[in-house]
Protein backbone atom coordinates (compact mmCIF):
# COMPACT_ATOMS: atom_id res chain seq x y z
CA UNK A 1 0.00 0.00 0.00
CA UNK A 2 1.29 3.44 -0.89
CA UNK A 3 0.16 6.62 0.79
CA UNK A 4 1.12 10.23 0.28
CA UNK A 5 2.49 11.86 3.42
CA UNK A 6 4.15 15.16 4.24
CA UNK A 7 7.46 14.93 6.07
CA UNK A 8 10.68 16.88 6.01
CA UNK A 9 14.27 15.74 6.40
CA UNK A 10 16.22 17.66 9.00
CA UNK A 11 19.77 18.73 8.21
CA UNK A 12 22.42 16.14 8.87
CA UNK A 13 24.82 16.85 11.72
CA UNK A 14 27.99 14.84 11.78
CA UNK A 15 28.80 13.27 15.12
CA UNK A 16 30.74 10.38 16.58
CA UNK A 17 28.99 7.29 17.87
CA UNK A 18 30.01 4.24 19.88
CA UNK A 19 30.08 0.78 18.44
CA UNK A 20 29.29 -2.50 20.09
CA UNK A 21 32.44 -4.42 20.99
CA UNK A 22 31.39 -7.85 19.84
CA UNK A 23 30.13 -8.60 16.32
CA UNK A 24 26.86 -10.48 16.10
CA UNK A 25 25.15 -12.34 13.29
CA UNK A 26 23.12 -10.62 10.53
CA UNK A 27 20.13 -8.61 11.74
CA UNK A 28 17.10 -9.30 9.52
CA UNK A 29 14.29 -6.73 9.85
CA UNK A 30 10.75 -7.05 8.56
CA UNK A 31 8.79 -3.95 7.47
CA UNK A 32 6.73 -2.30 10.21
CA UNK A 33 5.03 0.31 7.99
CA UNK A 34 3.66 0.65 4.49
CA UNK A 35 5.73 2.34 1.79
CA UNK A 36 5.10 6.11 1.83
CA UNK A 37 5.66 8.61 -0.99
CA UNK A 38 6.27 12.23 0.00
CA UNK A 39 5.55 14.86 -2.68
CA UNK A 40 7.84 17.72 -1.58
CA UNK A 41 8.58 20.97 -3.41
CA UNK A 42 12.00 19.94 -4.71
CA UNK A 43 12.24 16.18 -4.37
CA UNK A 44 10.27 12.96 -4.12
CA UNK A 45 10.85 10.58 -1.24
CA UNK A 46 10.03 6.90 -0.86
CA UNK A 47 10.14 5.86 2.79
CA UNK A 48 9.54 2.83 4.96
CA UNK A 49 10.41 1.68 8.44
CA UNK A 50 11.73 -1.73 9.42
CA UNK A 51 12.02 -3.44 12.80
CA UNK A 52 11.06 -1.91 16.14
CA UNK A 53 12.55 -0.70 19.41
CA UNK A 54 16.34 -0.57 19.39
CA UNK A 55 16.31 -2.30 16.00
CA UNK A 56 14.11 0.31 14.30
CA UNK A 57 15.52 1.47 10.94
CA UNK A 58 14.12 4.12 8.59
CA UNK A 59 14.92 3.85 4.88
CA UNK A 60 14.61 6.88 2.60
CA UNK A 61 15.01 6.86 -1.20
CA UNK A 62 15.21 10.46 -2.45
CA UNK A 63 14.98 11.48 -6.09
CA UNK A 64 15.39 14.99 -7.50
CA UNK A 65 14.67 14.44 -11.17
CA UNK A 66 13.66 11.88 -13.82
CA UNK A 67 16.91 9.92 -13.68
CA UNK A 68 16.37 6.54 -11.99
CA UNK A 69 19.22 6.98 -9.51
CA UNK A 70 18.30 7.92 -5.95
CA UNK A 71 20.02 9.07 -2.77
CA UNK A 72 19.67 6.49 -0.03
CA UNK A 73 19.61 7.33 3.69
CA UNK A 74 19.33 4.74 6.45
CA UNK A 75 18.72 5.85 10.03
CA UNK A 76 18.53 4.00 13.35
CA UNK A 77 20.75 2.40 15.98
CA UNK A 78 21.67 -0.58 13.76
CA UNK A 79 23.28 1.96 11.39
CA UNK A 80 25.99 3.01 13.86
CA UNK A 81 29.45 3.21 12.32
CA UNK A 82 32.84 4.35 13.63
CA UNK A 83 33.98 6.00 10.38
CA UNK A 84 32.94 9.56 9.53
CA UNK A 85 32.91 8.64 5.85
CA UNK A 86 33.91 5.82 3.56
CA UNK A 87 32.42 3.09 1.38
CA UNK A 88 29.62 0.71 2.34
CA UNK A 89 28.76 -2.68 0.87
CA UNK A 90 25.13 -2.65 -0.33
CA UNK A 91 23.09 -5.29 -2.15
CA UNK A 92 19.51 -5.35 -3.43
CA UNK A 93 19.25 -9.13 -3.34
CA UNK A 94 19.12 -11.86 -4.08
CA UNK A 95 19.74 -11.37 -7.82
CA UNK A 96 21.59 -8.04 -7.93
CA UNK A 97 25.32 -7.91 -7.23
CA UNK A 98 26.96 -6.19 -4.30
CA UNK A 99 27.80 -2.51 -4.81
CA UNK A 100 30.08 -0.04 -3.06
CA UNK A 101 28.37 3.24 -2.11
CA UNK A 102 30.21 6.26 -0.71
CA UNK A 103 28.68 7.54 2.54
CA UNK A 104 28.87 10.17 5.27
CA UNK A 105 27.94 9.50 8.88
CA UNK A 106 25.27 11.77 10.28
CA UNK A 107 22.12 12.12 12.35
CA UNK A 108 18.49 12.19 11.28
CA UNK A 109 16.74 14.02 14.10
CA UNK A 110 18.20 12.10 17.08
CA UNK A 111 18.89 8.90 15.14
CA UNK A 112 22.25 7.77 13.81
CA UNK A 113 22.23 7.80 10.02
CA UNK A 114 24.29 6.70 7.05
CA UNK A 115 23.87 9.22 4.23
CA UNK A 116 24.94 7.84 0.86
CA UNK A 117 26.51 10.64 -1.12
CA UNK A 118 26.25 9.49 -4.73
CA UNK A 119 23.43 8.52 -7.07
CA UNK A 120 22.52 4.89 -6.36
CA UNK A 121 20.56 2.30 -8.36
CA UNK A 122 19.25 -1.06 -7.23
CA UNK A 123 21.74 -2.83 -9.48
CA UNK A 124 25.30 -2.21 -10.74
CA UNK A 125 26.07 -1.31 -14.32
CA UNK A 126 26.92 -4.19 -16.63
CA UNK A 127 30.46 -4.94 -17.81
CA UNK A 128 29.74 -3.46 -21.27
CA UNK A 129 28.22 -0.32 -19.75
CA UNK A 130 31.23 0.10 -17.46
CA UNK A 131 33.60 -0.14 -20.42
CA UNK A 132 31.60 2.46 -22.33
CA UNK A 133 31.55 4.81 -19.34
CA UNK A 134 35.29 4.41 -18.81
CA UNK A 135 35.93 5.39 -22.46
CA UNK A 136 33.59 8.41 -22.37
CA UNK A 137 34.90 11.95 -22.23
CA UNK A 138 33.98 14.06 -19.16
CA UNK A 139 31.46 16.10 -21.19
CA UNK A 140 29.78 13.03 -22.70
CA UNK A 141 26.40 11.95 -21.24
CA UNK A 142 26.64 8.98 -18.86
CA UNK A 143 24.04 6.69 -20.40
CA UNK A 144 23.23 3.25 -19.00
CA UNK A 145 20.26 1.00 -19.65
CA UNK A 146 17.38 1.51 -17.20
CA UNK A 147 16.78 -1.18 -14.59
CA UNK A 148 14.02 -3.40 -15.99
CA UNK A 149 10.71 -4.02 -14.23
CA UNK A 150 11.68 -7.70 -13.94
CA UNK A 151 14.83 -6.83 -12.01
CA UNK A 152 12.91 -4.50 -9.71
CA UNK A 153 10.28 -7.19 -9.09
CA UNK A 154 13.00 -9.71 -8.23
CA UNK A 155 14.31 -7.66 -5.29
CA UNK A 156 13.48 -9.17 -1.90
CA UNK A 157 15.85 -7.41 0.47
CA UNK A 158 18.33 -4.60 0.96
CA UNK A 159 21.50 -5.80 2.67
CA UNK A 160 24.07 -3.46 4.22
CA UNK A 161 27.43 -4.94 5.18
CA UNK A 162 30.69 -3.14 5.91
CA UNK A 163 31.32 -0.75 7.58
CA UNK A 164 28.55 -1.98 9.90
CA UNK A 165 29.82 -4.24 12.67
CA UNK A 166 26.71 -6.38 12.21
CA UNK A 167 25.21 -6.92 8.76
CA UNK A 168 21.64 -5.57 8.42
CA UNK A 169 19.04 -7.02 6.04
CA UNK A 170 15.88 -5.00 5.34
CA UNK A 171 13.13 -7.23 3.94
CA UNK A 172 11.83 -4.79 1.32
CA UNK A 173 9.97 -7.20 -0.95
CA UNK A 174 9.53 -6.27 -4.61
CA UNK A 175 10.72 -2.75 -5.44
CA UNK A 176 8.80 -2.45 -8.73
CA UNK A 177 5.57 -0.96 -7.34
CA UNK A 178 7.24 1.45 -4.91
CA UNK A 179 9.64 2.77 -7.57
CA UNK A 180 6.73 3.22 -10.02
CA UNK A 181 5.03 5.41 -7.42
CA UNK A 182 8.24 7.42 -7.17
CA UNK A 183 8.16 7.88 -10.97
CA UNK A 184 4.63 9.31 -10.72
CA UNK A 185 5.81 11.77 -8.09
CA UNK A 186 8.68 12.88 -10.35
CA UNK A 187 6.26 13.55 -13.24
CA UNK A 188 4.28 15.77 -10.88
CA UNK A 189 7.44 17.52 -9.75
CA UNK A 190 8.54 18.28 -13.32
CA UNK A 191 5.11 19.75 -14.09
CA UNK A 192 5.60 22.12 -11.15
CA UNK A 193 8.91 23.19 -12.71
CA UNK A 194 7.03 24.16 -15.88
CA UNK A 195 8.41 21.22 -17.90
CA UNK A 196 6.33 19.67 -20.68
CA UNK A 197 6.49 16.10 -19.34
CA UNK A 198 4.96 14.41 -22.41
CA UNK A 199 7.28 16.24 -24.80
CA UNK A 200 10.24 15.27 -22.64
CA UNK A 201 9.34 11.58 -22.77
CA UNK A 202 10.37 11.48 -26.43
CA UNK A 203 13.47 13.68 -26.38
CA UNK A 204 16.07 12.77 -28.95
CA UNK A 205 18.65 14.57 -26.85
CA UNK A 206 18.66 15.76 -23.25
CA UNK A 207 20.50 18.87 -22.16
CA UNK A 208 24.24 18.08 -22.33
CA UNK A 209 27.23 19.92 -20.89
CA UNK A 210 29.29 21.57 -23.62
CA UNK A 211 32.32 21.76 -21.31
CA UNK A 212 33.67 19.59 -18.51
CA UNK A 213 31.40 19.65 -15.39
CA UNK A 214 34.42 18.70 -13.31
CA UNK A 215 35.77 22.20 -13.96
CA UNK A 216 32.63 24.10 -12.99
CA UNK A 217 33.48 24.07 -9.30
CA UNK A 218 37.12 24.22 -8.21
CA UNK A 219 38.93 24.05 -4.88
CA UNK A 220 38.92 27.84 -4.56
CA UNK A 221 35.09 27.77 -4.50
CA UNK A 222 35.02 25.90 -1.16
CA UNK A 223 33.58 28.46 1.33
CA UNK A 224 36.54 29.50 3.53
CA UNK A 225 34.65 29.41 6.83
CA UNK A 226 33.32 25.93 6.03
CA UNK A 227 36.80 24.80 4.96
CA UNK A 228 38.27 26.08 8.24
CA UNK A 229 35.59 24.21 10.17
CA UNK A 230 36.22 21.02 8.21
CA UNK A 231 32.60 20.90 7.04
CA UNK A 232 31.69 18.56 4.15
CA UNK A 233 28.45 18.92 2.19
CA UNK A 234 26.27 17.35 -0.50
CA UNK A 235 24.26 19.77 -2.64
CA UNK A 236 21.65 18.80 -5.24
CA UNK A 237 21.14 21.56 -7.80
CA UNK A 238 19.04 22.18 -10.90
CA UNK A 239 19.71 24.60 -13.75
CA UNK A 240 17.01 25.84 -16.08
CA UNK A 241 18.43 25.75 -19.62
CA UNK A 242 16.84 27.64 -22.50
CA UNK A 243 16.38 26.48 -26.09
CA UNK A 244 19.57 28.40 -26.89
CA UNK A 245 21.57 26.24 -24.44
CA UNK A 246 22.12 29.04 -21.93
CA UNK A 247 21.52 28.48 -18.21
CA UNK A 248 18.86 30.93 -17.07
CA UNK A 249 18.57 30.14 -13.37
CA UNK A 250 20.01 27.95 -10.61
CA UNK A 251 17.96 26.28 -7.91
CA UNK A 252 19.19 24.33 -4.88
CA UNK A 253 17.00 21.28 -4.40
CA UNK A 254 18.67 19.85 -1.33
CA UNK A 255 21.61 20.64 0.91
CA UNK A 256 23.12 18.96 3.95
CA UNK A 257 24.97 22.02 5.16
CA UNK A 258 24.73 25.81 5.65
CA UNK A 259 23.70 28.21 2.91
CA UNK A 260 27.29 29.24 2.20
CA UNK A 261 27.64 26.08 0.12
CA UNK A 262 24.42 26.79 -1.79
CA UNK A 263 25.60 30.25 -2.84
CA UNK A 264 29.02 28.90 -3.85
CA UNK A 265 27.48 26.22 -6.08
CA UNK A 266 25.05 28.46 -7.94
CA UNK A 267 27.57 31.26 -8.40
CA UNK A 268 30.16 28.88 -9.83
CA UNK A 269 27.97 26.82 -12.16
CA UNK A 270 26.12 29.85 -13.54
CA UNK A 271 29.48 31.44 -14.40
CA UNK A 272 31.23 28.39 -15.90
CA UNK A 273 28.64 25.88 -17.15
CA UNK A 274 27.91 25.70 -20.88
CA UNK A 275 25.31 23.49 -22.53
CA UNK A 276 23.98 21.98 -25.72
CA UNK A 277 20.16 22.33 -25.63
CA UNK A 278 17.64 19.51 -25.47
CA UNK A 279 15.91 18.37 -28.69
CA UNK A 280 12.37 17.03 -29.02
CA UNK A 281 11.44 14.10 -31.25
CA UNK A 282 11.27 16.43 -34.25
CA UNK A 283 14.78 17.69 -33.62
CA UNK A 284 13.61 21.09 -32.34
CA UNK A 285 15.42 22.72 -29.42
CA UNK A 286 13.32 23.30 -26.33
CA UNK A 287 13.68 24.72 -22.84
CA UNK A 288 14.65 22.04 -20.37
CA UNK A 289 16.86 21.54 -17.30
CA UNK A 290 20.12 20.04 -16.10
CA UNK A 291 20.55 18.37 -12.72
CA UNK A 292 23.58 17.30 -10.78
CA UNK A 293 25.07 17.09 -7.30
CA UNK A 294 28.19 18.58 -5.74
CA UNK A 295 30.10 16.88 -2.97
CA UNK A 296 32.38 19.16 -0.93
CA UNK A 297 34.89 17.05 0.93
CA UNK A 298 38.23 17.61 2.62
CA UNK A 299 40.67 14.78 1.74
From TrEMBL:
Signal peptide: 1-20
Keywords, sorted A to Z: Signal
Alphabetical list of SUPFAM superfamilies matching this protein: TolA/TonB C-terminal domain
Keyword flag Signal: yes
Location of the TonB C-terminal domain: 221-297
Listed transmembrane segments: none
Gene Ontology BP terms: transmembrane transport
Name under which the protein is recorded: TonB C-terminal domain-containing protein
Organism in which the protein naturally occurs: Sphingorhabdus lacus
Amino acid sequence: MLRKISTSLVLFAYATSAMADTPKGPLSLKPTSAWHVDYADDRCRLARQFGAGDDLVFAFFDRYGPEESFRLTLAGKPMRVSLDQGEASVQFGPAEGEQKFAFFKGNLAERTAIVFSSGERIGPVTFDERQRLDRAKPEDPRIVEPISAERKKAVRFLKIGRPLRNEVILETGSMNGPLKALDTCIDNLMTVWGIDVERHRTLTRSVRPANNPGQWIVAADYPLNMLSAGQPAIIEFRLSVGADGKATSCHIQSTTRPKEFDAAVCKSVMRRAQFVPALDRDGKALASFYRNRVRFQIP
